[in-house]
Amino acid sequence: MIRKHLRLLTPLALLGLLVGLADLSHGSVGEDEDYYMQGLLIREQYNQVQVLEKQNSFIPDGEEDPKEHSAKKTGKAKSDSSKKTDKTPADAKTVKSPNKKAEKTKKTAVKNPNSVSEGEQQYNPIKKECPPIGLESLKIDDFQLHASSTKRYGLGAHRGRLNIQAGLYEDDLYDGAWCAGRDDTLQWFEVDARRLTKFTGVITQGRSSLWSSDWVTSYKVMFSNDSHTWITLNNGSEDLIFKGNREKEIPVRNIFPESVVSRYIRINPRSWFTRGSICMRVEILGCPMPDPNNYYHRRNEVITTDDLDFRHHSYKEMRQLMKVVNEMCPNITRIYNIGKSQSGLKLYAIEISDNPGEHEVGEPEFRYTAGLHGNEVLGRELLLLLMQFMCLEYLSGNQRIRHLVEETRIHLLPSVNPDGYEKAFEVGSELIGWSLGRWSNDGIDIHHNFPDLNAILWAVEAKKWAPRKMFNHHIAIPDWYQSTNASVALETRALIAWMEKMPFVLGGNLQGGELVVTFPYDRTRSQGVVREQTSTPDDHIFRWLAFSYASTHRLMTDANRRVCHTQDFAKEDGTINGASWHTAAGSMNDFSYLHTNCFELSMYVGCDKFPHESDLPEEWENNRESLLVFMEQVHRGIKGVVKDHQGRGIANAIISVEGINHDIRTAADGDYWRLLNPGEYRVTARAEGYSLLSKKCEVGYEMGATRCDFTIGRTNMSRIKEIMEKFKKQPIKLPMRQLAARGSRRRRLGT
């Protein structure tokens, strides 16, 4: 509709371009030069809209005549905080500078909408809701956020982003909100959209803090096109005051009954928690206005060309999508479930392989899991996109994908915690806060619900019992953990059974809320220490695996990117040892390393745990190459088969690498895979009842594991034991002829 009317513009609209030279919007000193031109074009678009309304009487569907609304546009915010109302202004209008003539026109009040309770939104079935403009997702950069005053730098406007988290120890750099320097009704928080935007609503939170209780309980909203003249949203007779928060964590959304087109938006707090201060975290809902010249296209924005299903899927929709992928690629996919959630939902996985349903000797097995925390939704959708992508690319003949499918058995488990996800999905991407849906139905954090095998191993090492009395790998699960009374989620038990059944070599669990890859150990070795570098014997390969994902992600290693919350992981190449970040006992990563052959890492794939579905295409582009590259790392190191002299594979044979105090074991068919960085290694294969054998194996820099097979023979003692077992440990009864021959032989020898 707008594009149709843009064709009717007269040359008068171009005058706005010249007018803009006289009054540019304010910006930071460090802004790029193209934002100067953006300011001019914004004024041009602003004048174009005015011409359309005046000359063509263009009124979008459901809107009132702009003449009737002109009386609603007052020039400044009133400071009387007592004028609270549940009235919220009913469709789209464009911000205009106030004038006396407009103030004298007839005032038309908007109908009072229903009041909005905490965490809820007002729906208008006629209008399409606009997505977030990007404070939480960091599309809005720090230079676009301004405030009337600031308590200190760490509580500046740049920290006023929805769901931003403060550190455990609050400091001057990374606190959990914007907080005003003074507590009065003259304070404001401002967002510069840098282009004309149709604003439709605001979402607010209080301050993220373990020590303070600060939130805003009511506020006004103001708009401007030049950052000097401001219009307060009103209902025709008085300024509208929106209900804010009742506590600091649950987001509250207010939808404007009428959308407003402008460049700048301000939130003006009117009241706040009596024992706290003015502190806010904010997200703005808005749709960018048409940009026929594509000038406002963000310079780093990537538009995907993949034709995939970019939306959030409920449990039922996820299951249906997996079925569609299976029907499209029946020869390389198989759907199965590993168990059920606490509420009875099946935990579905999809296998992608050229021979689905079977383990092929010499072919490594890889897994991706997501959704251990139900509210960290991006990983779940990335795996759903990945299975679609691999199916379509395989069918189109993509050689890279075909090679990956033919040489690897891939398992994708998109939703480990479907119960938690359904809670988050029901509320919506912007209203779940930081933790709703994180835990299982019985309140358990699945990712940290595994047995703490670190403590067992370290206690044995302290007594110098390893490896003489206990192995340094495949550590047994304690009996207490397997009891029915143990606080173990059904989902965790299902994961453990799955991990023990499949000979996984490499795995990644996709999480959210940060941009970093973590690797074991996740628990600090020193008692009572919250953060401490705690490396595994395979630290070098773990660092490479983490870097392989982070370095191919579009943002993780970007030194110029903004910090998600409190820590700049880009300085560490987008990777960190888990215990160096924060200690956590019983993590899936540590358990996988100590109980199975699988090297497991955690990928935190986005600052926003539950991004709006309009952000999914870009998030897919951010992670697509990383997802593929990390899968390919399963072919790094050495592989082979351990056999006896009859050519039979030996299961549970131990593969040791000199200098690395962590072994792995062969699978049921005697095949093994040992992840290693390039270099020359002395490798030993041994099994109970067999002689050990050592050889040198060299790992090159090219992709593809080096073949290193072993053929080992039985020991004399094992043969004796086998004979004894065969005859049930009874004396062997020899035939009489053999006994007589032995007797005569002894007599001849004089014995």
TrEMBL record:
This is Inactive carboxypeptidase-like protein X2. SUPFAM superfamilies: Carboxypeptidase regulatory domain-like, Galactose-binding domain-like, Zn-dependent exopeptidases. Residues 66-106 have a biased composition (Basic and acidic residues). One of its GO terms (biological process) is proteolysis. InterPro entries: CarboxyPept-like_regulatory, CARBOXYPEPT_ZN_1, FA58C, Galactose-bd-like_sf, Peptidase_M14, Peptidase_M14_domain. Residues 112-121 have a biased composition (Polar residues). PROSITE patterns: CARBOXYPEPT_ZN_1, FA58C_2, FA58C_3, PEPTIDASE_M14. Residues 1-27 form the signal peptide. It comes from the Eukaryota. GO terms for molecular function: metallocarboxypeptidase activity; zinc ion binding. SMART domains: FA58C (SM00231), Zn_pept (SM00631). It is found in: Secreted. Residues 128-287 form the F5/8 type C domain. Residues 57-121 are annotated as: Disordered. Keywords: Disulfide bond, Glycoprotein, Secreted, Signal. Residues 311-634 form the Peptidase M14 domain. Belongs to the peptidase M14 family. One of its GO terms (cellular component) is extracellular region. May be involved in cell-cell interactions.
